[in-house]
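Recall the central idea of this unit: under ordinary conditions, the amino acid sequence of a chain determines the structure it adopts. In this exercise we apply that idea directly, starting from the sequence alone.
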Amino acid sequence: MEINTDPKKIEEILSRGTEDVIDKKHLKQELLSGRCLNIKFGVDPTGPKIHLGRATALLKLRDFQQLGHRIILIIGNFTAQIGDASDKDSLRKPLSEKEIKENMENYLPQIGKILDLKKVDVYYNEQWLAVLKLHTLLSLTMNFTAQQMIQRRNFKERWEAGKPIGLHEMFYPILQGYDSVAVNADLELGGFDQLFNLKTGRDVQKFFGMKPQNLMTLKMLDGPDGRKMSTSWGNVINILDEPNKMFSKLMEVKDELIYDYFVCCTRVSMKDVKKIKKELDSKKINPKEIKKNLAKAIVTEFHSLDLAEIAEKEYEKVFEKKDLPTQIAAITIKEKEINILELLIKLGLSNSKGEARRLVEQGGIKFILDGKIEIKSDWQEMVKIKKGTVIQSGKKNFRKIG
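Accordingly, the structure predicted from this sequence is:
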């Protein structure tokens, strides 16, 4: 495939959603030269789903792929057993081989929603790290000091807080760097929190007499609530979320994050994105309307325009007109009468009686039948089971008694 050297496209790739580029001048020259670059991105299968925070890097890889460059995807099935400490404030539990295998099962199909996998070289770093000789590893470690490792931000914070730092964690950046040697990377992408690891990769390449890779760090995408997008906090938007769910989650994005989501999660032209920012800053337009355009663009990216339009109508129906969703999961309840807390658990609207009790006490549970709405307030109430009753928990969770 011929390499596209359009200066405007290259400049946008280098600037859109990026935090830092090392060395930008050199990388720009490389991209303009027409040489096919080896562009590396590594991902550890620490969970079964890929969220938008990770998808931003895949979108950037697609930009490079569309220019004709070679995309090298490294699945860290070896490094996942150690765990990257880049964004962790405490010692993380190592994953077992079984957990890693289960997490990897659906990884490539998810990545294939963004990248053309036929044009991606996929590697699993176990194939070279599992056979890395000890004397080679020891020789590598002689190029780094304990002080270097401890001084990285999160290790320093853990050290000062008296939290344990595993010796194995210090090997992670070196092993990630060796990945760059194995695939002869010209450029490596990562989140801004990965900067230490990426720089270490340059040093490891120099050790082996190779030209050090260029680096591109990307802006970290916050979750809709403004905190870092994290599965443990439940504020993630997964690329496998069904369209209605994805749309409603995106409508919860804080107004101040709309611009970043447009930049990082869509490929709406930057000219249009800047216009959107001006509209937001002028406060002449309701952010909610812009958010609908954002949600539609992202749902279209991971599903289709048709499904995005259906999701928009469903959102307006449920959250603006306060109608019931078109489709509600129906659950059969065998009991004729049941305590409301037990019912909420059986319907999957609560994980525990304590949580269910709080929902009831806060007025978050509604029973809807034949157009009549009843807000429940007594957590000790025995509820008579009536087929067709819709139970609503909070704003967006619905179940029907089948």
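Residues 330-401 form a domain with the Structural Genomics Hypothetical 15.5 Kd Protein In mrcA-pckA Intergenic Region; Chain A fold (CATH 3.10.290.10).
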